[in-house]
Write a structure and sequence with these properties.
With 162 residues, this protein is an alpha+beta fold. It has one domain: OB fold (Dihydrolipoamide Acetyltransferase, E2P) (Beta Barrel), CATH 2.40.50. It has helices at 2-17, 28-31, 142-154, and strands spanning 37-47, 53-63, 70-74, 93-98, 109-110, 118-122, 125-128, 138-141. β1 and β2 (53-63) form a beta hairpin. The longest helix is centred in the first third of the chain and has 16 residues, at 2-17.
């Protein structure tokens, strides 16, 4: 009976840990094109628990639309393809591409971990895989990043010209 119990516990833990699997969809400038909202924001609070979330103060909307400066973002719980709360410390600043493919948003906005859907801002620089491979990290000034992002959003070789 003890073996069956241990096997059951192992199965539950393994299935919980393996609930989300996805391939890396690319660097930020690639994956952000498929997100419905891209913002620069500051993490205000964490709400841990069964459905963890974080409160974000939106400092700038880079793509999409938002009616308020506050945002609640659903985070990882082991069952969805989202990063964990501890990756986003309170009082840090980020560029977030929300509700991209793989984020499994549920009730509101979420970040996918199936690509580089978030970039950290430190000392006026944007840090992360902006336009490189998964393991390559870029450091560029915030304004330079915003300019690249806006050019990238408007450049679509498949867009029909009128």
């Amino acid at each position: 009976m003890k073996r069956i119990w241990l096997l059951f516990v192992f199965f539950i833990m393994y299935s919980h840990a393996e609930a989300c699997s996805c391939n890396w969809k690319g660097p930020f400038l690639t994956v952000a094109k498929d997100a419905i909202l891209v913002v620069r924001g500051k993490i205000l609070r964490h709400h841990a628990g069964k459905s963890p979330t974080m409160d974000v103060l939106v400092l700038e909307t880079l793509a999409g639309g938002l009616l308020d400066s506050g945002l609640v973002v659903q985070m990882g719980d082991g069952m969805h393809c989202r990063p964990m709360l501890d990756s986003f410390p309170v009082n840090t600043e980020w560029i977030l591409a929300l509700n991209g493919p793989g984020s499994k948003p549920g009730n509101g906005f979420a970040i996918s971990h199936c690509g580089e859907y978030w970039l950290r801002i430190e000392n006026g620089n944007v840090i992360g895989s902006i336009n490189q491979s998964e393991k390559q990290v870029n450091h560029i000034p915030l304004q330079e990043f915003i300019n690249q992002f806006k050019m990238n959003q408007h450049h679509n070789p498949f867009k029909v010209k009128e």
